Backbone:
């Protein structure tokens, strides 16, 4: 059974705080790592598709890093805003199961004004 | 460009019945994947179809089946419904390229009584 773990499970921060979450995945047979944001009553939306060890991606105040050798990725949000409140999901794709995404359970972020 | 659509959005069925859910992908997308989300669980992969062929399959019983039509629309069928099948079923489409980036629909909320 392939495990993708996310921590913490939930996070409550004040507006303006910076925060980060972790996604752990198997370090062998890596193909890609995706990050998605899932807001309440909406559909999950892709944030980043990461494929190379050492990848760093950025979109506005959100950035992500990837370490395939040790099997983890970090998602950072700088200066959190209430509109950042959502569940953040990571998904692992292995080289032998292309097209099959293994999702973690997500980190639920709440940003208080 | 229109997004992924799913019908119906809500459904209530009785144990033992069967159900068919429908998904229309983004125009030009050739891959459709199905996911199940139950309370406390991450998104669980059901199967992926590409060009009318099942390319990947998750660890679900044979009561769960799907198909894809020549226009890339996909249906998922669950036979002999059980209470545990109550869940949000999400469909996602992708180009079918090497990124496997998923574009999700709004989901179908299935309740089995």
Residues:
């Amino acid at each position: 059974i392939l495990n993708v773990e996310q921590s913490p499970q939930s996070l409550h921060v004040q507006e303006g705080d910076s925060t980060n979450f972790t996604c752990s995945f198997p370090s062998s047979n890596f193909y890609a790592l995706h990050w998605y944001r899932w807001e309440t009553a909406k559909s999950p939306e892709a944030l980043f598709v990461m494929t190379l060890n050492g990848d760093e991606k950025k979109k506005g105040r959100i950035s992500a890093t990837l370490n395939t050798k040790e099997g983890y990725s970090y998602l950072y949000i700088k200066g959190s805003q209430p509109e950042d409140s959502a569940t953040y999901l990571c998904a692992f794709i292995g080289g032998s199961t292309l097209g099959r995404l293994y999702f973690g359970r997500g980190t639920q972020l709440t940003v208080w004004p | 460009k229109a997004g992924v659509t799913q019908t119906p959005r809500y459904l209530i069925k009785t144990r033992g019945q069967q159900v068919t859910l429908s998904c229309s992908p983004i125009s030009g997308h050739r891959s459709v994947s199905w996911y199940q989300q139950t309370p406390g669980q991450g998104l669980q992969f059901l199967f992926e179809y590409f060009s009318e062929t099942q390319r990947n399959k998750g660890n679900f019983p044979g009561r769960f089946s799907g198909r894809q039509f020549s226009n890339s629309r996909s249906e998922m069928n669950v036979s002999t419904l059980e209470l545990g099948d109550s869940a949000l079923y999400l469909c996602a489409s992708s180009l079918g390229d090497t990124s496997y980036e998923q574009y999700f629909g709004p989901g179908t909320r299935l309740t089995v009584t």
Q: What stands out?
A: The mean pLDDT of chain A is 95.
